[in-house]
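thought: user wants a sequence for this fold. calling inverse folding tool.
action: design(structure=
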């Protein structure tokens, strides 16, 4: 029993201290602060397992503790490390699939725009009155919707292609050779399940820019993206940057929640340069994290 408790505790402390696996998996165990915390938490866990706990603590809370402990255990199987040459194909795949996922939500975003609704409505009514048949307007609207989906796919594929050409086909030169840039992957059972890159921002050299964040769908909700975010923040701190900035889009709602959860603040919102993006209100968002050492 105590052995089981001990194991859960270890994982709980791991989470409490907020130290993620960073290539030096057991570093946290040697920290005196962690050892003190371990003793305090150990006592607390013994209480948790006691009759008193079962009688007085809400079962939902017990379930949430169990889930949390499980989640940390899953995370413990994931290692965050620097990119290696042999990761190349998997990195491209994780990034490409992650980006392609935004095609359906982007189509929904376009359909929610009053301009798009008005346009479809006008075409429908015009064809209905001129042809006096329901078939033609339905067919025309269906064709327009299909064409719209194709255009959104085209835009995303173009973006993915530009990312591959810009840096993902040259990770070594873009992120590993320059001193203040890096590329990290999350590895689970020998496979790449998450990616993130960082390099000095062109807009403000005091900031490191976080890019190419993506986690495989099968490994979401386990704290991998949070660990990748922390790795980038640690890297920025080590290299003396004031903070980290990044860009995301209005349809990447999971990413927005992630960054807000990690303490990033939205600093600006602007339209993507393409005409179609302006027409459809496809905005880009800039987030910034000021590192603790630089907050006053
Ligand atoms: C965004 C993304 C990287 C999150 O990866 P993840 O490993 O599942 O995220 P985590 O498990 O570390 O979750 C971190 C936090 O983000 C938020 N979050 C992530 N996914 C969420 C979701 N589906 N709903 C609500 N909140 C979510 C939560 O606050 C979560 O913390 P919590 O679980 O403690 O509440 C992942 O969904 C992804 O790869 N998406 C596609 C690619 C992409 O959009 N990349 C961003 C480019 S800017």
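)
observation: tool returned 296 residues.
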């Amino acid at each position: 029993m105590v052995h089981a408790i001990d194991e859960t505790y270890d994982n709980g402390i791991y989470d409490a201290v907020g130290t993620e696996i960073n290539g030096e998996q057991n570093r946290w165990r040697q920290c005196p602060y962690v050892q003190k915390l371990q003793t305090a938490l150990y006592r607390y866990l013994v209480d948790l397992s006691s009759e008193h706990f079962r009688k007085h603590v809400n079962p939902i809370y017990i379930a949430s503790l169990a889930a949390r402990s499980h989640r940390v255990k899953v995370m413990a199987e994931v290692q965050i490390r620097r990119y290696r040459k042999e990761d190349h194909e998997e990195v491209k795949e994780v990034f490409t699939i992650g980006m392609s996922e935004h095609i359906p939500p982007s189509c929904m975003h376009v359909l929610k725009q009053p301009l798009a609704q008005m346009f479809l409505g006008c075409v429908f009514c015009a064809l209905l009155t001129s042809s006096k048949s329901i078939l033609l307007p339905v067919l025309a609207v269906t064709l327009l919707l299909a064409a719209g989906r194709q255009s959104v796919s085209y835009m995303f594929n173009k973006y993915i292609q530009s990312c591959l050409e810009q840096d993902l086909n040259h990770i070594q030169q873009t992120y590993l050779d320059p001193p203040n840039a890096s590329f990290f992957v999350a590895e689970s059972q020998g496979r790449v399940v998450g990616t993130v890159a960082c390099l000095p921002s062109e807009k403000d050299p005091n900031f490191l820019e976080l890019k190419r964040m993506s986690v495989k769908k099968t490994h979401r909700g386990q704290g991998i993206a949070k660990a990748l975010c922390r790795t980038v923040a640690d890297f920025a701190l080590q290299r003396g940057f004031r903070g980290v900035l990044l860009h995301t889009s209005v349809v990447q709602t999971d990413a927005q929640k992630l960054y807000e959860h990690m303490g990033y603040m939205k600093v600006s919102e602007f339209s993507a340069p393409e005409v179609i993006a302006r027409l459809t209100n496809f905005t880009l968002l800039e987030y910034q994290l000021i590192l603790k050492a630089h907050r006053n």
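thought: summarizing for user.
answer: Here is the designed sequence. Residues 1-36, 49-54, 56-67 have pLDDT under 50 and may be disordered.
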